[in-house]
Amino acid sequence: NLILPNLKRTPVHDFIVQQGGKMVPFAGWSMPVHFANTGVLAEHLHTRDSASLFDVSHMQQLKILGKDRVKFLEMLTVADIEEMHFGTATLSLLTNEKGGIVDDTIISKHADHIHIVTNAACAEKVLKHIRNQMYKLQSRGWFLNLEVIKDYALLAFQGPKTAEILRKLGDKDLRDFRFMTTRYVNIKKIELHMTRGGYTGEDGFE
Predict the structure, then answer these.
(1) What one GO molecular function would you report for this record (predicted)?
(2) Residue 5: which pLDDT band, with cuts at 50, 70 and 90?
C-alpha cells in the first residue's frame, strides 16, 4: 500500500485499510481503488449481482439555509427547485454568471434546508463560487446561510440487493422510498441522510 502522508483521509479511511483496501491519491484524498483479496473485476461483478459499499466521503456536502435559499439556488443551477417537493432530489449543474458549468451536483430539498453534494476535484472552486454569490445577495438583504458538512461520512451502497439488505438492518419497508427521494432515517441507532440514487447504474442508496 502507498504511504500517502500529505493526503486528506475520510472518516472510514483506517477501517478500509484494515480490510485490505489499496489506497491511491485522488483529488487530494487517500482513496481505495480496490481490495487486495478481490480485485477490480470481482468487485464490479459483486456490485452488479449483489451489493457493494463505497466510501465517497471525499465529495463535498453543503447545506443552504435561510428563507431565500430556493430562489438563490435557482440562480446558481439549472434545476427547478421551486417545483421540487420536500423529500426529493435531482441531479443538476452549478453554473457561473455566463452560463458555463462549474460542477455537477445532487440537490436534495427539505422543509428547512437544501442539501447539495459536489465533486471533490471541484470542491474549493464550488465553495468559493457559492460564497461569492451568497455574499453579494446577503448585502442586498437576502436571508441566506451556508453550512459545510464535515461531521458526516458519505457512503454509497450500490447494487440490486441494497434495499433488501437495508430492510433487514433497519427493519423498515422501503417500498415508498422511490428513486431520487431523500429522507432522514435511523439504522442501528445511527442517523442517516439517505437518498435513493444509484450512480453505478444499479439500484442504490447514498
Answers:
(1) transaminase activity
(2) low
